[in-house]
Amino acid sequence: QVQLVESGGGLVQAGGSLRLSCAASGRTFSIYAMGWFRQAPGKEREFVAAISRNGLSTEYADSVKGRFTISRDNAKSTVFLQMNSLKPEDTAVYYCAADRTYYNPHTSSGEYDYWGQGTQVTVSS
Questions:
Q1: What is the mean pLDDT of each run of 10 residues along the chain (125 residues)?
Q2: Distance CA 90, CA 125 (A)
Q3: Separation of alpha carbons 116 and 123, rounded Å
Q4: CB 120, CB 90: distance < 8 Å
């Protein structure tokens, strides 16, 4: 089993920045791709960003390209999401996810095996 714990969420004004972290514990050697998803009130969970096991390949949702950056530190079993130029529409609960099957990043939430509890990000206008 793998446990994921997110941190770094909070309240920020539009145009500001936040850095989310997701620390993995347990059978971390089994983790391949990792991703971030978000869910706003009344909306379905949506893909934000994902990264390959070696950190060299990434994917982003069109809505965050150029503003968000995903990275990982395998030595610390941690994945990060640097969020810049935040907008009110980025307000959501952000979830970290880990995949034990696919090496490369992908956008399908149903394929990820482990999920964190989520961290709230609120962007005020």
A1: 95 98 88 95 96 96 98 95 98 96 90 96 97
A2: 11
A3: 21
A4: no
Cβ contacts of 102-106, under 8 Å, gap ≥ 24: 102/32, 102/33, 103/32, 103/33, 103/52, 103/53, 104/33, 104/52, 104/57, 105/33, 105/35, 105/49, 105/50, 105/51, 105/52, 105/57, 105/58, 105/59, 106/33, 106/35, 106/50, 106/59
Length reported for the chain:
125
Spatial contact of 60 and 76, defined as CB atoms under 8 Å apart: no
pLDDT at 43: 96
